[in-house]
Design a protein that fits this description.
The chain is of the alpha+beta class. About 30% of the residues lie in helices and about 15% in strands. Strand 3 and strand 4 form a beta hairpin. The relative contact order is 0.16.
Length: about 90
């Protein structure tokens, strides 16, 4: 997956300070329409802690920006490891 990230297109406003989002759980479930198994955060639960990662489509169905959420979680964990002298 590639996303546009060219500095020439951005107005940088500062360094990102990641939050502890460990309270957002991953749920195991099956999709009602297909019965297909999946693991994912639940949009309504993400919305409570990090609403910027939740978006609604034209029918009001919620989706999660999993890449953004994962990036913040990894950045937070890197900070924890760095403070502990493990990174």
């Amino acid at each position: 997956m590639t996303a546009t990230s060219d500095a020439r297109l951005k107005d940088i406003i500062g360094d990102f300070e990641p939050r502890d989002l460990s309270g957002i759980r991953l749920a195991e479930f099956t999709w009602k329409a297909s019965g297909e198994y999946a693991v994912s955060p639940i949009a309504q639960e993400v919305q409570e802690e990090a609403p910027e990662y939740v978006h609604a489509d034209h029918e009001g169905i919620l989706g999660v920006d999993k890449a953004g959420l994962a990036l913040e979680r990894v950045a937070f964990l890197e900070g924890v490891l760095r403070k502990a002298g493990l990174l």
